[in-house]
Design goal:
This protein is about 20% helix and about 35% strand. The protein has 2 helices and 9 strands. The chain has a 4-stranded antiparallel β-sheet, with helices on one face.
């Protein structure tokens, strides 16, 4: 009764492989978790835009649209930006707030149109909440609420909540 010569050879290779694998696992375990270099800013840019509703005609790249519930957040190297706007009058607003062709004053003053909530993290984090187009005498009830904020990471968030109409 003897042990065949070829069977020890197969176990010998398995043993060597097990020792090498055990050494590799032990080396990784002793080295500890990997740590990334402290990079505060990730190179690149990003932009996110959400729009609830756009109404109006558009032809040949020209449009006369009203946009409702628009939120925009952007990331640039080292800076975040955010903008929330319940109503954007676009070129219609420009026409309403410009001097008329006959020289008469504009139909609407720019200060009468709702302004967006904006935030930029260029100097420090910012946050702004604006009631959009409040109805006079209604304790702030209007078209909606606009919120824009930035953080030091830098990161930006924008939220536009439209009022429910019934």
């Amino acid at each position: 009764m003897g042990v065949r010569r070829g069977s020890w050879r197969a176990f010998g290779r398995t043993g060597v492989a097990a020792v090498l694998l055990g050494g590799a696992v032990l080396g990784v375990a002793l080295a500890g978790p990997a740590r990334s270099a402290e990079a505060a800013v990730v190179p690149g840019t990003a932009q996110a835009l959400a729009t609830a509703l756009t109404v109006g005609p558009a032809t040949g790249g020209l449009s006369e649209e009203l946009t409702f519930g628009q939120s925009l957040a952007a990331y640039l190297p080292g800076e975040a930006q955010a903008q929330a706007q319940a109503v954007n009058f676009g070129s219609i607003g420009l026409s309403l707030t410009s001097d008329q062709c006959n020289g008469s004053p504009p139909l609407v003053q720019p200060s009468q149109l709702p302004k967006p909530a904006t935030a930029e993290s260029i100097d420090q984090p910012q946050s702004q909440t604006v009631d959009a187009a409040p109805i006079p005498g209604s304790a702030g009830v209007g078209v909606g609420v606009q919120q824009a904020a930035t953080t030091p990471e830098p990161a930006g968030t924008a939220t536009t909540t439209l009022a429910a109409f019934s």
